[in-house]
From TrEMBL:
Naturally occurring in which organism (per UniProt): Fasciola gigantica (Giant liver fluke)
GO molecular function: protein N-terminal-serine acetyltransferase activity; protein-N-terminal-glutamate acetyltransferase activity
Protein name as it appears in the record: N-terminal amino-acid N(alpha)-acetyltransferase NatA
Family assignment from sequence similarity: Belongs to the acetyltransferase family. ARD1 subfamily.
Lineage of the species this protein comes from: Eukaryota, Metazoa, Spiralia, Lophotrochozoa, Platyhelminthes
The keyword 4Fe-4S is annotated on this UniProt entry: no
Length: 175
Protein backbone atom coordinates (compact mmCIF):
# COMPACT_ATOMS: atom_id res chain seq x y z
CA UNK A 1 0.00 0.00 0.00
CA UNK A 2 1.29 3.43 -0.96
CA UNK A 3 -0.16 6.70 0.33
CA UNK A 4 0.84 9.85 -1.53
CA UNK A 5 -0.32 13.28 -2.63
CA UNK A 6 -3.09 13.15 -5.19
CA UNK A 7 -2.16 14.22 -8.71
CA UNK A 8 -4.43 15.65 -11.41
CA UNK A 9 -4.48 12.30 -13.22
CA UNK A 10 -5.88 10.68 -10.03
CA UNK A 11 -9.04 12.78 -9.94
CA UNK A 12 -11.19 10.47 -12.09
CA UNK A 13 -10.19 7.47 -9.98
CA UNK A 14 -10.91 9.44 -6.80
CA UNK A 15 -14.39 10.18 -8.15
CA UNK A 16 -14.88 6.48 -8.96
CA UNK A 17 -13.83 5.56 -5.41
CA UNK A 18 -16.35 8.09 -4.12
CA UNK A 19 -19.10 6.57 -6.28
CA UNK A 20 -18.27 3.11 -4.87
CA UNK A 21 -18.24 4.23 -1.24
CA UNK A 22 -20.47 7.19 -0.52
CA UNK A 23 -24.00 8.44 -1.19
CA UNK A 24 -22.66 12.00 -1.64
CA UNK A 25 -21.23 12.55 -5.07
CA UNK A 26 -19.63 15.57 -6.69
CA UNK A 27 -19.25 16.79 -10.24
CA UNK A 28 -15.77 16.46 -11.73
CA UNK A 29 -15.28 20.23 -11.66
CA UNK A 30 -15.39 20.04 -7.85
CA UNK A 31 -12.50 17.57 -7.80
CA UNK A 32 -10.56 19.74 -10.24
CA UNK A 33 -11.25 22.83 -8.12
CA UNK A 34 -9.74 21.13 -5.06
CA UNK A 35 -6.88 19.56 -6.99
CA UNK A 36 -5.84 22.80 -8.66
CA UNK A 37 -6.47 25.17 -5.74
CA UNK A 38 -4.94 23.09 -2.94
CA UNK A 39 -2.83 20.33 -4.53
CA UNK A 40 -0.86 19.79 -1.31
CA UNK A 41 -3.92 18.81 0.74
CA UNK A 42 -5.46 15.79 -1.00
CA UNK A 43 -4.02 12.29 -0.76
CA UNK A 44 -4.70 8.85 -2.22
CA UNK A 45 -4.06 5.31 -1.04
CA UNK A 46 -3.13 2.96 -3.85
CA UNK A 47 -2.34 -0.74 -4.06
CA UNK A 48 0.87 -2.09 -5.55
CA UNK A 49 -1.12 -2.43 -8.79
CA UNK A 50 -1.81 1.35 -8.68
CA UNK A 51 -5.53 0.94 -7.92
CA UNK A 52 -6.82 3.84 -5.82
CA UNK A 53 -8.62 2.33 -2.85
CA UNK A 54 -8.99 5.45 -0.72
CA UNK A 55 -8.63 9.19 -0.80
CA UNK A 56 -9.10 12.39 1.15
CA UNK A 57 -10.23 15.53 -0.67
CA UNK A 58 -9.40 18.64 1.36
CA UNK A 59 -9.29 22.41 1.06
CA UNK A 60 -8.64 25.56 3.02
CA UNK A 61 -11.57 27.75 4.02
CA UNK A 62 -11.30 31.33 2.92
CA UNK A 63 -12.78 33.34 5.78
CA UNK A 64 -10.56 36.34 6.55
CA UNK A 65 -12.33 36.93 9.88
CA UNK A 66 -11.25 33.56 11.28
CA UNK A 67 -7.89 31.92 11.87
CA UNK A 68 -6.71 29.78 8.94
CA UNK A 69 -8.47 26.42 8.93
CA UNK A 70 -8.97 23.50 6.62
CA UNK A 71 -11.97 21.45 5.64
CA UNK A 72 -12.26 17.79 4.71
CA UNK A 73 -14.64 17.70 1.77
CA UNK A 74 -14.63 13.93 1.34
CA UNK A 75 -12.93 10.84 2.77
CA UNK A 76 -13.51 7.38 1.34
CA UNK A 77 -11.86 3.96 1.59
CA UNK A 78 -13.15 0.96 -0.37
CA UNK A 79 -14.76 -1.67 1.82
CA UNK A 80 -12.08 -4.42 1.55
CA UNK A 81 -9.45 -1.92 2.71
CA UNK A 82 -11.28 -0.51 5.73
CA UNK A 83 -10.09 -0.95 9.33
CA UNK A 84 -6.46 -1.01 8.20
CA UNK A 85 -5.61 2.53 9.34
CA UNK A 86 -5.82 3.98 5.82
CA UNK A 87 -8.48 6.60 6.60
CA UNK A 88 -6.64 7.73 9.72
CA UNK A 89 -3.37 8.05 7.79
CA UNK A 90 -5.06 10.00 4.98
CA UNK A 91 -6.65 12.37 7.50
CA UNK A 92 -3.41 12.89 9.41
CA UNK A 93 -1.48 13.64 6.22
CA UNK A 94 -4.09 16.18 5.10
CA UNK A 95 -4.10 17.82 8.54
CA UNK A 96 -0.31 18.02 8.63
CA UNK A 97 -0.25 19.53 5.12
CA UNK A 98 -2.77 22.16 6.24
CA UNK A 99 -0.48 23.17 9.10
CA UNK A 100 2.76 23.08 7.09
CA UNK A 101 1.47 24.90 4.02
CA UNK A 102 -1.27 27.20 5.31
CA UNK A 103 -0.70 27.46 9.10
CA UNK A 104 -4.14 25.96 9.81
CA UNK A 105 -5.26 25.96 13.43
CA UNK A 106 -8.08 23.46 13.03
CA UNK A 107 -9.85 21.31 10.46
CA UNK A 108 -13.59 20.89 10.01
CA UNK A 109 -15.84 18.33 8.34
CA UNK A 110 -19.44 17.22 8.08
CA UNK A 111 -20.60 13.67 8.71
CA UNK A 112 -23.99 12.00 8.60
CA UNK A 113 -25.45 11.49 12.07
CA UNK A 114 -26.12 7.86 11.10
CA UNK A 115 -22.52 7.09 10.03
CA UNK A 116 -21.35 5.34 13.20
CA UNK A 117 -18.10 4.00 11.75
CA UNK A 118 -17.01 7.47 10.62
CA UNK A 119 -18.04 9.02 13.94
CA UNK A 120 -15.94 6.48 15.82
CA UNK A 121 -12.94 7.21 13.60
CA UNK A 122 -13.32 10.96 13.93
CA UNK A 123 -14.00 11.07 17.68
CA UNK A 124 -11.81 8.28 19.04
CA UNK A 125 -8.89 8.05 16.62
CA UNK A 126 -8.63 11.63 15.35
CA UNK A 127 -9.95 13.65 18.33
CA UNK A 128 -12.65 15.54 16.44
CA UNK A 129 -15.45 17.05 18.51
CA UNK A 130 -19.00 17.81 17.48
CA UNK A 131 -19.24 21.59 17.15
CA UNK A 132 -22.81 21.79 15.84
CA UNK A 133 -25.68 19.91 14.23
CA UNK A 134 -26.76 21.05 10.78
CA UNK A 135 -30.37 20.00 10.14
CA UNK A 136 -31.16 18.50 6.74
CA UNK A 137 -27.61 19.06 5.53
CA UNK A 138 -27.66 16.18 3.06
CA UNK A 139 -29.76 15.98 -0.12
CA UNK A 140 -31.87 13.16 1.35
CA UNK A 141 -32.73 15.32 4.38
CA UNK A 142 -30.43 13.67 6.92
CA UNK A 143 -28.80 15.88 9.54
CA UNK A 144 -25.04 16.30 9.74
CA UNK A 145 -22.68 16.77 12.61
CA UNK A 146 -20.31 19.66 11.98
CA UNK A 147 -17.07 18.49 13.58
CA UNK A 148 -13.75 20.15 14.37
CA UNK A 149 -10.27 18.93 15.18
CA UNK A 150 -7.83 21.22 16.92
CA UNK A 151 -4.43 20.98 15.20
CA UNK A 152 -2.24 22.09 18.12
CA UNK A 153 -0.45 18.75 18.47
CA UNK A 154 0.38 18.77 14.75
CA UNK A 155 1.35 22.46 14.93
CA UNK A 156 3.76 21.72 17.78
CA UNK A 157 5.56 19.14 15.60
CA UNK A 158 5.28 20.62 12.11
CA UNK A 159 4.17 24.23 12.45
CA UNK A 160 6.31 27.20 11.46
CA UNK A 161 9.16 27.86 13.90
CA UNK A 162 8.75 30.92 16.07
CA UNK A 163 5.02 31.34 15.40
CA UNK A 164 2.90 30.44 18.42
CA UNK A 165 -0.26 28.42 18.02
CA UNK A 166 -3.34 30.63 18.33
CA UNK A 167 -6.09 28.90 20.27
CA UNK A 168 -9.52 28.75 18.66
CA UNK A 169 -12.87 28.88 20.33
CA UNK A 170 -14.83 25.73 19.65
CA UNK A 171 -18.27 25.02 21.02
CA UNK A 172 -18.47 21.24 21.38
CA UNK A 173 -21.91 19.79 21.95
CA UNK A 174 -22.89 16.75 23.96
CA UNK A 175 -23.70 14.71 20.84
Amino acid sequence: MNIRNARPNDLLNMRDCNLDCLPENYQMKYYFYHGLSWPQLSFVAETDDKEIVGYVLAKMEENPEDVPYGHITSLAVKRPYRRLGIAQTLMNLASRAMVENFHARYVSLHVRKSNRAALTLYKKSLQFVVADVEPKYYADGEDAYAMRRDLKSIWDKYGPPGIPFKETKSKPTDS
